[in-house]
Amino acid sequence: MNTIFKGTEVLSYKGSKSINYNLFLFSFFFSLLSATSFSQVKDTTKINQLDEVLVSAIRVTTKTPVSFSNLDKKEIKFRNLGQDIPILMNYLPSVVTTSDAGNGVGYTGIRVRGSDATRVNVTINGIPYNDSESHGTYWVNMPDFASSVQSLQLQRGVGTSTNGAGAFGASLNMLTDSYSKESSGEISNSYGSFNTHKHTVKFSTGLMNDHFEIAGRLSALKSDGYIDRASSDLKSYFLQGTYVGKTTLIKALAFGGTEKTYQAYWGIDKVTLDSDRTYNPIGIFTDEFGNTRFYDNETDNYQQDHYQLHWNEKLSSNWNTNLAFHYTKGKGYYENYKEDADFGDYGLLPVGSETSTDLIRQKWLDNDFYGTTFSANYKGEKLDVVFGGGYNKYEGNHFGKVIWARFASKSELGDRYYDDFATKTDGNIFAKANYQVCSNVSLFGDLQLRNVHYKADSPETGLVNDNFNFFNPKAGLNYTINNNNAIYFSYARANREPNRTDYESGNAKPEKLNDYELGWRYVSNKVKFNSNVYYMAYKDQLILTGNLDDVGAPIRSNSEKSYRLGLEVDAIIALSNELIIRPNFTLSANKNIDLAVENQNYGTTDIAYSPSVIAGNIIVYSPISDLHISLMQKFVGKQYMNNIELTDAKLVDYFINDVNVAYEIKPKSIFKSIVITGLVNNVLDKKYVSNGYMWDVYPYYYPQARINFLAGLTLKF
To answer: What is the pTM of this model?
Structure first.
């Protein structure tokens, strides 16, 4: 098979001191790494890469009765031209993606089996990434992170025990770049539609003295966006120091990014969609002369920095351990123009008789997230068992400032008109095992205990001081019929706490899920085939209502009883040495049972944002070994934007096609490799909408870009 598929198994703040701070912490981590490593016995014997231990505690293989998909670096690199990780995952089974700016840069979103990003548990090297309060994943804070990803695995459904919030639709775990034995450098540049351009520089020293490596990346990415003024100005970095011993791998990592993104979270109505589909209403105001204008700094500004220290130890041929410490710092604000604001709402005392004023406000977040994760893995002839857990703490300060007002007041501009603080602790322990009963039967068991304590006090949430204890058992069986066929069955229980917006909306019930999975895997020399039937039965599922709050966050409410029933099929088929196809589809029914909204019972209804048909396909043609031509296709069926099936709340289905071309040249001197890539998105120029929301009974839409392109050149030396 072609090597392109190797390994594919069945708001914003710029602090002037941030770079020095980052370098200081990285230097501290690397000094600690060096001190530890010098105590090791020097040994130049090479061992199997220990990087996989970073995620082995939460990853699965075909021996585990779980539905999953893998993406490795070889596949990612051909489309890594600036679009976010969710967009790169668009062609995986049961996945639907969207973009506020319309072109996959800036704020992007992902749904899996109809579940939004707050239900997808994301980890980086086993460290939780979801925001502790909102449960969301904000890829805009880590632009071009795909350039530092070695591989990722998407487990659909509850999956296996992992760190962070419980998975209610899927879990995504990412492994960052492995160490390199040889020194290398890489310069990558891309440019495309909507003035989108990305510039990336990477380096690795290779293993110095057979033990040490330092590697890093710097990226800058800008785009005007398809939607008016939906611009992005993004920067990111990745630094890694590695010590490799005979049985030891120690990694110190520092990575993060800054973003300034003009907001585009308000959609447009049907009339505007037909007449001016790129229109962006955010920032609109009327000046003192009666002219309609747009505020030029209606932006989200945020900086997020991550620090991780990992120590992996191979104790024997059967045992290995992983211990990690992490710290994440986030700080930034959302700035917007507010018309006719009441003085009292912002703590302002008027000078004259005016009771309201136009003003510019900033809503700030200043948060810290830190903790530890650990695991021990025993692999024997018949038994593969993992013990692990983690303890993490979040501290978040929410506050607001008025930085300008049209009418004078007795108050000082810059004073905080609200100042809220929240803390959250999250601890878990788990044990899971695969046991080979006989040559063709293996059993899987997984037990997790999780404790969550959330405390907050604000006018929106009220006083919150909740403690949750969750027990999440999982069990399954894998039966190998013959060398080509295997079937599996699994059951998983999951519990999940509400997020901050749920408390603000008055919906604070935790939700429960029983997930049943039945699958069949077939493998031959030319075909890999997976099929999976799932039934996810929910109690008090927090479903999207289709409404947004005043800063664009989705509002959810409890559905007392609901379910998702579906069939997933995906395959890799080598029709010849030159031609490979990778089709997948999901057929599902996603229902609320006896749904009650404002004391009215609507009976059985479709769950919002849950299309019953999702299909994808990738056709790869390689006439020569270094040329890859791909046609990528995606179909998403109709879906509702609320749960009462209003006709006007329906998003129509869409079918799009992208074309990707990658050609690698391997010169004999100067450069090791020259890679030329091109990507044409929506090549048939379809007008389509992938997302929207409801304002009362009126629909609003997020149109996605028509035909557009990206082209890139990567030089490796």
So the answer is: 0.91
